[in-house]
Amino acid sequence: MIVLASASPRRRDLLSQLVKSFEVMPADIDETPFELETPEEYVLRMAREKAEATIEKSSLGVRDLIIASDTSVVIGDTILGKPTSLDDAKRMLRSLSGQTHSVMTSLCVCNGGLNRVATRNVVTEVTFREISDLEIQQYWNTGEPQDKAGAYAIQGIGGIFVQHISGSFSAVVGLPLFELSQLLSEFGVSALKENIHE
Hints:
It is a single chain. The chain is α/β, with parallel strands linked by helices. The chain has a single domain (2-194), classed as Maf protein. The protein has helices at 9-15, 39-58, 86-96, 133-141, 169-173, 177-186, 191-194; strands spanning 2-4, 23-24, 65-75, 78-80, 100-111, 117-128, 162-166. Strands 1, 2, 3, 4, 5, 6 and 7 form a seven-stranded mixed beta sheet that branches. It is globular. Its cofactor is a divalent metal cation. The active site is at 70 (proton acceptor). One of its GO terms (molecular function) is hydrolase activity. It is found in: Cytoplasm.
């Protein structure tokens, strides 16, 4: 059995491009960064902890394959989480306006016994055009930014702010398909074989 340790509909949709059949088992963990933890250390820890929490909660075995991921928007050394209010979203989007930021998306693929664990951190550089306060208010009113890291969705209307991207689009959405397909192949799962129509 393949398990996606995430409630994200975006990750579910992306994973469905690689494998036909999988279970969704969201992980509920404390996502507070540690003091002095780097953004890279943080996203890798989050993915691993999500995988471990899902295994513990669901009693998964060594034959089961767990996929966990975490995405953080990072500007400088600051991690931008999901906005808690309009003011929080304004703060985030103002800091991204006219700037280049990093989107870090980590992967943890492991078996249920945790004796095989593979991780990756995929970093994509995203450049925003200048955004006005009026546009930020209008964007907030669409409802899109509320549950998105960095207060925007590149695959949605938030894409109108993106001037340039260097790296993986699917990683910014939430699941880097290239790197995930490579990790899955290490565990004997071929995305191409999974998608053959018989």
